Amino acid sequence: MADRDRAGQYYQQQRGQVGETVKGILPEKAPSASQALTVATLFPLGGLLLVLSGLALAASVVGLAVATPVFLIFSPVLVPAALLIGLAVAGFLTSGALGLGGLSSLTFLANTARQAFQRTPDYVEQARRRMAEAAAHAGHKTAQAGHAIQGRADQAGTGAGAGGGAGTKTSS
């Protein structure tokens, strides 16, 4: 009896965990009316297309079964014709694919170049701003150096004038 109760508790616990997992997967709100209408419209359409593809497959199999004797009788003519048509189709498809690849690569290069030229004024403006800042900084440093030299010259001139008058001998 205790085993049955324990098994029941285990089952309830597992069921609760599964329920929480499912709740985590499912969306919290119901689909909107437009989503429901879309599903209601596309589901039958998808089924119809699936049925039509099955019918096309069945018709192809029946047609192949009926046409096989004709293919065997006319095979000396049909095989070279089929090879010729197959090679022509392969050539056209290859040409189109290579042309599309070339066109897309040229488009990519043109877009890359266009983006590079659009960014160039930003780089030029940034370089111009840095040059102006460097010139202003150099001018400021030059002015400071000029003032320092002027101050030293004034000190030397004042010190030399006062010291020169006291240190020189006059003969009279």
Name the descriptors.
single chain; mainly alpha; 92% helix; disordered C terminus; 172 residues
Description of the molecule:
By secondary structure, the chain is an all-alpha fold. Among the domains are: 41-71; 73-146. It is built from three helices and no strands. The protein has helices at 2-25, 33-73, 75-167. The model is unreliable at 164-172 (pLDDT under 50).
Summarize the structure in short:
This protein has helices at 2-25, 33-73, 75-167. It has 172 residues and is mostly helical.
Annotate the secondary structure layout:
Elements (H helix, E strand, L loop, with lengths): L1 H24 L7 H41 L1 H93 L5
Pfam families: Oleosin
Protein name: Oleosin 18 kDa
Organism: Oryza sativa subsp. indica (Rice)
In which range does the helix fraction lie? over 70%
State the separation between the terminal residues, measured CA to CA: 141 Å
The secondary structure category is: mainly alpha
Note poorly predicted spans: 164-172
**What is the overall number of helices?**
3
Strand content is: under 5%
| Rg from alpha-carbon coordinates | 46 Å
Please write the string of helix (H) and strand (E) elements.
HHH
Q: Strand count, sense and closure of the main sheet?
A: none
Using DSSP, what is the number of strands?
0
Shape: flat
Mean of all residue-level pLDDT scores: 79
